[in-house]
């Protein structure tokens, strides 16, 4: 939920500042629709909002540890990016950057992006990481098949409950029918002797 809200905020800000040069960065051309955005050596701790016209992006030598989900999704014209020499913390929060780098492989010039922490992953290329290697990502992911199996089990349970209810209704009707037959037979057993007695009296 938090990641979805963050993405919505990024989209809103993008429409507002789509052609603005990020604060603390230098852009070329300096006017509207910057194509080259240089945010290197700025000690940035968060990725700034980037204009969609960016073709070259330089974020090296900062204090960046992660990239928020969706931060690079609007950079459709990007063909050069430098993310090296940052303090990338490789846990579950780095998965967006890892997947983004994998998707862009071969499509643009990308500098080596390596983990800074934790020590067990120091200097590992982020794009080469496996999700089970990342701290706090060791628990198995819930796959679509898990949800399908859960929904199927729930459906089967509902069918069984519905069948059981129908069986109860049918059984109740049968019991009621038998009770009515028994009552009718009892009433008939009381009525017939009285009729026969009445006929005998009339015959006399």
Short description:
The protein is of the alpha/beta class. The protein has helices at 2-16, 95-104, 144-203; strands spanning 26-28, 36-38, 56-58, 80-82, 109-110.
List keywords for this structure.
2 domains; 3 helices; single chain; alpha/beta; 204 residues; Leucine-rich repeat, LRR (right-handed beta-alpha superhelix)
What would you note in describing this structure?
The protein has 204 residues and is an alpha/beta fold. It has two domains: 2-140, Leucine-rich repeat, LRR (right-handed beta-alpha superhelix) (Alpha-Beta Horseshoe); 142-204. Helices cover 42% and strands 7% of the residues. The chain is built from three helices and five strands, in the order H-E-E-E-E-H-E-H. Helix 2 links the parallel strand 4 (80-82) and strand 5. The relative contact order is 0.08.
> Order of strands side by side in the largest beta sheet?
1-2-3-4-5
Please state the second-level CATH architecture of the largest domain. Alpha-Beta Horseshoe
Total strand count, please?
5
The number of helical elements comes to 3
Portion in helices: 40-55%
Global shape: rod-shaped
Supply the CATH class of the largest domain: Alpha Beta
Question: Helices and strands: which structural class?
Answer: alpha/beta
Largest sheet: 5 strands, mixed
State the separation between the terminal residues, measured CA to CA. 97 Å
User: CATH superfamily of the largest domain, please?
Assistant: Ribonuclease Inhibitor
H/E element order: HEEEEHEH
* Computed Rg: 38 Å
The percentage of residues in β strands lies in 5-15%
CATH topology of the largest domain: Leucine-rich repeat, LRR (right-handed beta-alpha superhelix)
Mean of all residue-level pLDDT scores:
81
């Amino acid at each position: 939920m938090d990641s979805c809200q963050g993405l919505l905020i990024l989209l809103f800000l993008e429409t507002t500042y789509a052609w603005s040069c990020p604060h603390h960065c230098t852009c070329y051309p300096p006017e509207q629709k910057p194509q080259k955005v240089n945010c290197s050596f700025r000690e940035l701790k968060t990725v700034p909002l980037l204009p969609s016209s960016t073709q070259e992006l330089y974020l090296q030598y900062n204090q960046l540890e992660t990239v928020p989900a969706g931060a690079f999704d609007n950079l459709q014209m990007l063909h050069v990016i430098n993310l090296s020499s940052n303090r990338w913390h490789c846990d579950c929060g780095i998965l967006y950057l890892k997947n983004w780098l994998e998707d862009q492989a071969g499509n643009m010039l990308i500098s080596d992006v390596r983990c800074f922490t934790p020590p067990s992953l120091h200097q590992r290329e982020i794009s080469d990481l496996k999700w089970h290697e990342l701290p706090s990502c060791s628990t198995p992911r819930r796959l679509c098949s898990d949800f399908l199996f859960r929904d199927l089990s729930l459906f089967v349970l509902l069918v069984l409950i519905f069948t059981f209810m129908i069986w109860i209704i049918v059984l109740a009707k049968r019991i009621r029918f038998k009770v009515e037959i028994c009552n009718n037979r009892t009433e008939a057993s009381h009525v017939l002797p009285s009729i026969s007695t009445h006929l005998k009296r009339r015959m006399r």
